[in-house]
Design goal:
Layout lengths: L2 H28 L3 H59 L3 H22 L3
Helix pairs in contact: 1-2, 1-3, 2-3
Length: 120
């Protein structure tokens, strides 16, 4: 396994652990009804996929232009959030507050962790 692949895998696993911990806290203490827990689970899944892609973008492009790589990953998160808010939440019948608050929180916390995850 290459160093880049190993770093991406570690970052993705760490992001998964962060998202899972927050999702469990939200489902246990904040959004305790069935619809709220479902919205948190769907948002966690979306965040995992988008963050894994964002980690890959940052990892691949950071040597050439770190700020550009982070900007591209941030744009991916923003596009996902807007699409999720305008299309997916209604289409899936999710409670908007639980779905959007959890997705924004997942993105925010994992984005804060990125510099630490890519220090290697």
């Amino acid at each position: 396994m290459t160093s880049a692949a190993r770093t991406w895998m570690i970052a993705t696993l760490a992001g998964t652990a962060i998202i899972a911990g927050i999702a469990l806290a939200f489902a246990g203490f904040v959004f305790t009804d069935a619809d709220g827990r479902r919205a948190v689970a769907v948002s966690a899944t979306v965040a995992l996929v988008v963050q894994a892609a964002g980690f890959a973008v940052v990892r691949q492009l950071r040597a050439r232009n770190m700020m550009g790589a982070w900007g591209l990953a941030a744009g991916l998160r923003m596009l996902t959030l807007v699409s999720y808010a305008l299309v997916a939440v209604k289409m899936l019948g999710l409670p908007a507050t639980a779905a959007l608050f959890s997705l924004v929180t997942f993105f925010f916390v994992t984005t804060l962790a990125e510099p630490w995850l890519f220090r290697s």
